[in-house]
Amino acid sequence: MSTTSSQQMAALALQIKQWGQELGFQQVGITNTELAQAEAHLKNWLNKDFHGEMDYMQRHGSKRSRPVLLHPGTRRIISVRMDYQPESGAAMNRTLSDPFSAYISRYALGRDYHKMLRNRLQKLADKIEYEHGHFGYRAFADSAPVLEKAIAEKAGLGWIGKHSNLINRKAGSWFFLGEIFTDLPLPTDTVAAAHCGSCTACLDICPTQAIVGPYQVDARRCVSYLTIELHGAIPEELRPLIGNRIYGCDDCQLICPWNRFARITGEKDFSPRHKLNTRQLLDVFAWNEHEFLTKTEGSAIRRIGYDRWLRNIAVALGNAPASPRIIAALINRLSHHSEMVREHAQWALDRQLTKRPDETLFSKQC
């Protein structure tokens, strides 16, 4: 590559970062395609069966860690982050500490980020093509086998913390990631340095102790996996530990000291829809399937479907303090068409009745 073209690529890289910020990305970085260390970590994780039923984590072979196999011709990866924190940490903790409230992971309260990020990435690619000319590329937003956190770390967007999420010194960890694989020989950024130090707050706070060691998450125990990825019954021994978390879990982010630097997002698409950040468990448990589909339209929540939605809420209701209203709602779900929903509702009902022995007669009469 000539000196002139090197200078042109350096200038283009600066422009790409500026265009990215104009499109609403808080940061843009660039890295190469060498991910050998991340590949070794992934293989070790898979060999321990920490992925559970997420077969897609190994289905694509080396495509996940070797970008050129996923998109031939890839020489560089443009990595972006977009902040999504919709409310203060204090507000989140208030919901989490109220056993009658439904806690939904804050990334899922607004519009499905997949579509939104892909749209912005496409606009960035279009801008590059308009200003620079035709180039080879493919955009991703958690939509293909991509090691997005390892890529973002190499691109200088942050470091992978002990909870396996990416952390930025100035922005915490409440952000989404996206990528553009490209054949442009752009200059690369410096790999981000780690700053977790001796802190183990995320390991200590994990409700199911899914973070089995620094940088090692056993997804089979993770609340996010149990409430989103798992299709069948949630293991009984883990149900009491889930608390009132009905879709995902944010505990390891809420406790992370670096998130004191996180800022509330200005993106309206990430604002809570249908008051999903303040809903009561009994309220969302009462939704029929049409209401569920209507109120989760355009949301990432929809992917779990109505039956798993009820499954998750039933567990949370079983964990709540004794309540005649909860008992009545659970009894009502014992006739649900799904065996999975009926089983979880029965488990929750048994828990409620154990807390309130005097309700046994009420259960039998109903």
UniProtKB/TrEMBL annotation:
Q: Which Enzyme Commission number(s) are listed?
A: 1.17.99.6
Enzyme class name: oxidoreductase
Q: Which residues form the active site?
A: 142
Among SUPFAM superfamilies, the record links this protein to: alpha-helical ferredoxin (SSF46548)
Q: How is the cofactor bound?
A: Binds 2 [4Fe-4S] clusters per monomer.
Q: Which GO terms describe its cellular component?
A: cytoplasm
Q: Single Gene Ontology BP term?
A: tRNA queuosine(34) biosynthetic process
Q: Where in the cell is it found?
A: Cytoplasm
Q: Does the keyword Metal-binding apply?
A: yes
Q: What is its main location?
A: cytoplasm
Which cofactors, if any, are listed as required? Answer: cob(II)alamin; [4Fe-4S] cluster
Q: Which family does it belong to?
A: Belongs to the QueG family.
Question: What quaternary structure, including any partners, is listed in this protein's UniProt entry?
Answer: Monomer.
| Full protein name | Epoxyqueuosine reductase
Which organism is this entry from? Candidatus Methylobacter favarea
